[in-house]
Amino acid sequence: NYIIPGKNMARVKIDELMRFSEEVLVKSGLTSENAKSVAETLVTTDTFGVLSHGTKNLYGYIQKMQAGGLNAAAVPTVEKEGPAWGIVNGNAAIGMLTADFAMKKAIEKAKKTGIAYVGVYNSCHFGAAGYYANMAAKAGMIGLSMSNGDPVMAVPNSSGVVIGNNPFAFAAPQKNGESVFLDIALSNVAALKVVMAKEKGITVPDGWLVDKDGKPTNDPSGFPQTSYLQPMAAHKGYGFAVLVEILASVLTGAGMLSEITSWNLDLPSKNKVGHAFIAVDISQMMDTEVFYERMEHMVTELKSAPKAKGAEKIFVPGEMDWEKREKALASDEIEVTDVMAENYRKLSALTGAEINIY
Description:
Blueprint: E1 10-13, H1 14-27, H2 32-47, H3 58-67, E2 77-82, E3 85-89, H4 95-113, E4 115-123, H5 129-138, E5 141-147, E6 168-173, E7 179-184, H6 191-200, E8 209-211, E9 216-217, E10 227-229, H7 235-250, E11 273-281, H8 288-303, H9 319-331, E12 333-336, H10 338-351
């Protein structure tokens, strides 16, 4: 999990960041209840160490509201549904609100049918996909969460962007209250991490980008206009991205491929992305305690594999993220990069809300 290093790293108390985020959202037109839901998503994402997808982006979301690309007063609505499925219209509401609503609907339906799918259209960037997959895990279910996005990724044999890097996440619960989970963009790296490198004027690792001729580059300054993300594992990541496009866009009626505009580079335009959420109720297929025992057996076997020379520990997916969250909760603080701090200052100037970082 590549985190762009900040200069003069500051810190903020978790409760202070929650209060500030809620206040900013309320002052920008959200109800108190909806502001709390969005703030919870963003701050929780920060506690997992995914700083590229948490409160750093709140300034961009507020700017998009003010430009007309998001509707602060909007709420998602169910347009069509059956016992085990639903289609939700995001109504151009802030993406975290819509995604939270849709996954809750999938969980509710899965309790009755064993497995449920809820698709979304007319939405916007929803932050970290893993947050919603973990909502299902917290409810004792297996969760899948995904979204399409504006084209930022080249595909094998192309010399320009063709498809979004379409984030995907899964989460499966463990008895200790944590989960085995994976949250990935289907490019070699999340686009927002390239944006963070671009903002800081630093190079990116090999394999992240190709230039307009399809050649590898470490320079993020041209992203996304003249340099593009690469799919993870070449044709495999490309195929997986197409699967997400089908489930989150083709099936939902959302914007597709070139119909999607950048949520943060084209503020006045509706983003039009789609999402998909799937919940699987374990208890209807297997005794929950038996499932937890089998999960523990799987995790133990994976972690007890012979270690490579110099390696200290084998991790299962999500383990490092949970360790970061435990550290953040134990210290009651989150690290603040210089870009995050600058965005907080801009939000203060924009809304009058104040925050204490140190």
